[in-house]
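Justification of resources, computational component.

The compute hours requested in this renewal are based largely on the per-chain cost of generating structure records like the one below. Each record pairs the submitted sequence with a full structure-token output. That output is archived, and it is also reused by downstream analysis tasks.
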Amino acid sequence: MLFKRPILAYDVPFNKEVLQEGGIYFKDAGDLANKMEMLERGGEFDLKLIKKTQIKRIRRQYNWERVAMEYERVFRALIRRAQG
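The structure output for this chain reads:
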């Protein structure tokens, strides 16, 4: 996502959660080869939309402020649990 290029990802829930509309998904080796050929030919995927989605996702989800807030949330929950 960082390089604003299409990401080919195995079609599993985890990848779809992370990439959302910012990825191109394949189901098996044949499908992967087909998607790679489609990318080589161009015009098959909306690469501008993929790039835009990736940039938005990175800015929203993967920034230091958000990461720090999530760590703080986890640590506070652990402290509460430890205090009983």
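The two ends are 41 Å apart (CA to CA). The longest helix spans residues 64-83.
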